[in-house]
């Protein structure tokens, strides 16, 4: 079995865009509105010969965005079982929100290795957000632009030692 990498984060940070980028397809499930991704989706990804299965989640969507409903959390918890790494995606443009902090605290109680990813980091507008993502406490954030395909080599560098 290929290693499994799960994408986690609050709504609208670009999880599905990153998923699509990693599997090399433009699927129709990306939208400006939160809650568009209904189901967990998985697909085959490869970066520079490193093959893994990537899983998109929508566990924190659909509900009040500033709470963590237990049943949504348990859905993501199920996804985390058997995962070899989790990409914890935040939005470098909007900056961190209380929900990012809450997801981070929850992730800390999980066994899986976490790679912090600051998405929407294209141009200079994302720089402050990338720096802020250090405060999540998971080490150096990987700056990417899922939309523009930037930072994928750095993501590879963070993933290959752990999967
Ligand atoms: P999800 O809710 O976390 O799955 O987020 P989506 O992938 O649906 O993306 C939410 C919004 O962010 C969409 O409008 C995307 O086009 C936009 N987005 C995703 N990645 C990037 C990026 O790298 N840069 C910018 N500027 N926007 C992005
Ligand atoms: Mg999505």
TrEMBL record:
Domain of life: Bacteria
Coiled coil: none
Record-listed GTP 1 binding positions: 9-16, 56-60, 119-122
Domain EngA-type G: residue ranges: 3-163
Subunit details: Associates with the 50S ribosomal subunit.
Record's function text: GTPase that plays an essential role in the late steps of ribosome biogenesis.
Record family assignment: Belongs to the TRAFAC class TrmE-Era-EngA-EngB-Septin-like GTPase superfamily. EngA (Der) GTPase family.
Protein name as catalogued: GTPase Der
Protein source organism: Qipengyuania atrilutea
Gene: der
């Amino acid at each position: 079995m290929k290693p499994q990498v799960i994408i986690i984060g609050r709504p609208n940070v670009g999880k599905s865009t990153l998923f699509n980028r990693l599997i090399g397809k433009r699927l129709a499930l990306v939208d400006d509105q939160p809650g568009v991704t209904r189901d967990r989706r998985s697909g085959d990804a490869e970066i520079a010969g490193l093959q893994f299965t990537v899983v998109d989640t929508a566990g924190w969507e659909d509900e009040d965005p500033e709470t963590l409903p237990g049943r949504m959390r348990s859905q993501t918890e199920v996804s985390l079982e058997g995962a070899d790494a989790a990409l914890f995606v935040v939005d470098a443009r909007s900056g961190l929100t209380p929900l990012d902090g809450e997801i981070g605290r929850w992730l800390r109680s999980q066994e899986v290795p976490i790679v912090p990813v600051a998405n929407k980091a294209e141009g200079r507008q994302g720089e402050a957000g990338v720096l802020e993502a250090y405060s999540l406490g998971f080490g150096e954030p990987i700056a990417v632009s899922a939309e523009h395909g930037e930072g994928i080599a750095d993501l590879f560098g963070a993933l290959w030692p752990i999967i």
